[in-house]
Amino acid sequence: MADLLARTRESVLWPVRAYVLLAWTWCRALAQYPASLAMMTLSTALGAFAEMGAVFVVFGHAGEVSGFGMAEGLLIAGMATTAFACADMVMGMVEVLGRHIRTGSLDVMLVRPVPPLVQMATDRFAPRRLGRIVPGSAVTVVALAACDIDWSVGKVLMLPVLLVSATAICCAIWVIGACLQFFVADAREAANSITYGGQALTEYPMAIYPKNVVRAATFVLPLAFVTWQPALYLLDRPDPTGLPESLRFATPFVAVALCAVAAACWRFGLRHYRSTGS
């Protein structure tokens, strides 16, 4: 029994250790050019601030959008930027799966003693993406302080769970979108429309969209659980779209379910993968 537990623990921890080691290797390589890394990180941060600046302009001009004020709008935008930026850093490189298939480099990954998903996710790992995470986190913290939130022990404990769950949902969406390239090699743009387009969708209150869009973003591609439902929970606001209030507690469960779907899609794609022969 002890041996079984040890093997199970090792099978779970080994991919994590391999991911950290490979990511750290890329970070050390990029750190050899500190000026370039600093400038790229700064440009990434400015881009993130520009995106959230657009939200600031919209709310500053309109005052309220669907009953949500400036601080509440920035909270939603900050959470969206943080979740998608974290997912982009952790799992964003899977979007180039089609390139690995065309060049035959996926075949090389399959014979290495490290899970191919870990290798792909850490390929050209870019710490400059912190330039998106830091501004998003800063805006989120400021917005949380500015919003009229009735903090309780439950909300304080739930906040990191919601943020981690939102990031997990984004990571799962990235993997599911990438798996399309097992069958359609040029499907990267279609996948990007879901990932990067999903971020644009979640940066504003879902109440501004038609009800059919909100339902699709809740029950088909659950982007609503990245920012919208967590924001409703934190703000104690009724859902203006008319969906059940119990959904605001479902974000962690949606994250687990979607990660399971992503893992199944990845395994399905690998089983049906045929080498390029190159």
Identify the notable features of this structure and list them briefly:
mainly alpha, globular, single chain, 278 residues
Summarize the structure.
With 278 residues, the chain is an all-alpha fold. The chain has helices spanning 2-30, 34-62, 70-91, 97-103, 105-110, 116-122, 130-146, 153-179, 188-202, 211-219, 228-235, 251-271.
Detailed description of the structure:
The protein is mostly helical and 278 residues long. Helix content is 71%, strand content 0%. The chain is built from twelve helices and no strands. The mean pLDDT is 87. InterPro entries: ABC-2_transporter-like.
Order of helices and strands: HHHHHHHHHHHH
> Which shape, going by the Cα principal axes?
globular
Secondary structure tally, helices = 12
Beta-strand fraction estimate: under 5%
Q: What's the quaternary structure here? A: single chain
How much helix, percentage-wise, in residues? over 70%
> Mean pLDDT, nearest integer?
87
N-C termini distance: 45 Å
The overall strand count is 0
Sketch the major β-sheet: none
Q: Over all CA atoms, what is the radius of gyration?
A: 20 Å
Structural class: mainly alpha
Unreliable residue stretches: none
